[in-house]
Amino acid sequence: MPEPMVICSMSAGTQVSIRPYAEGDMWLLGKTLGDPGQMVHLNGPESPERIQKRHKLFISMSAEPRAGCQYTILVGPGKTPAGNVGYWESEWKGQKAWELGWFVLPEHQGRGVATSATRQVVDRLTKLNGPRAAIAFPSVDNHASNALCKRLRFRLKEDISSEYPPGSGRQLHVNVWWLDLPA
Hints:
Layout: E1 8-11, E2 14-20, H1 26-32, H2 48-63, E3 68-75, E4 80-92, E5 95-104, H3 113-125, E6 133-136, H4 143-151, E7 155-163, E8 171-180
Parallel strand pairs: 5-6
Antiparallel strand pairs: 1-2, 2-3, 3-4, 4-5, 6-8, 7-8
């Protein structure tokens, strides 16, 4: 099992750190992926069964982070769980990249928490052997996530329709954001 990784930074006066996703973090998925308000830009909430599967996937990803990892976002001096951020191997138009995704609980939104946590993951990716790019696919209507990509200097490549969740048959109109990582 990898060593716990905690990186701290400040965001709008709030201390933000990340640690590998753990067994006791499933409740965060229920409050993010299972919540209709949180999933308004991702074709609606996931079922409890799908959340359980995703929880198991996140646990396995966090145990072997070379191909991807999920982190729990922690805020404040008490390190209160505030959401999740992660990366996994992906491919877009024949180019390999680390795909990024994030969720932040409503009470922690609007304070730069997701930006700070995602920046920490991008910093981690620059040190890994693997793809030299990161990619994100926020819904075109998710203004906060698109603004996060702009703040982190991703380049908007295009907007496309994509199936989400995978296997659902439902289409989602997303922006394709690309970030070249240093060699």
